[in-house]
Write a structure and sequence with these properties.
Layout lengths: L2 E5 L3 H13 L3 E5 L2 H10 L4 E4 L8 H9 L9 E5 L4 H9 L4 E4 L4 H18 L4 E6 L5 H18 L4 H23 L8 E6 L3 E7 L2 H12 L5 H4 L4 E5 L4 E7 L4
Parallel strand pairs: 1-2, 1-3, 3-4, 4-5
Antiparallel strand pairs: 6-7, 7-8, 8-10, 9-10
Helix pairs in contact: 4-6, 6-7, 7-8
Amino acid sequence: MPTALIVEDEPEANKLMGMLLRLRGYQTQSAFTAKEALELVEEGHPDIIFLDLMLPDLNGHEVCRILKSTKGTTLIPLVIVTARVAAENRMESFRFGADDYIAKPYTPDQIFQALEQAIEWLEQAKSGQIQEAVPFQGNDDGEIVRRVGQLRSLVFARTSLDLESARRIGRAVVEIWRLASDQTRSQEAEPACSLVYTLTSQRLVLTFRGPDAWLSGIRRLQEQDEQSAVAAAEFDEIQSDEAGGSLALIKSFLPS
């Protein structure tokens, strides 16, 4: 039976969440402080964590940072559930590595949807080759940050790279996404910019598709701008497909 950890200092709210999760066949554990939560995770990794931001000891973001900075726990789906509904709180949660964000008061369907997404995420994370598409269009910057955080967690957990190396790759993707945003603002029509990444235990391939000006900008960041996040990520190879309108940055590493 899968296990869900509920980190919520309000007893009634903790109890309600537990009732909903048990309806979906989950065994539940309750923590009322960050310290209790970290101890429970260390004792036995849950299959998913629902985490309040406002805890009596540590801020929920700090709990998220700790769990996402450890290889053994970085892939545990972590859902922020909070009354702090401002857009910046959602964005900050994704920067710390949260996999989902639910504002209070929530509906049961929101919790159930988070469970379904967590199952899909874990199945994908365990496969021998992971492939994911990330469109760079739309107005939801938080969604891009969330997807980049998940890529960072995958690289950290599934490869021999350390946490800082995984973070550098994440920062490179964010820099390229911002370049796409600049490209969008400079044109009347929104250009189609996207990333498809493929990850195995030995190689990460970031394939970007979009207008020539954007792809040329990525190449300049990699080859000419030593101060760029793309250069700092130290990709081993760059491949262009002019006919297909794509550019690939490749990072190789020893099997983990």
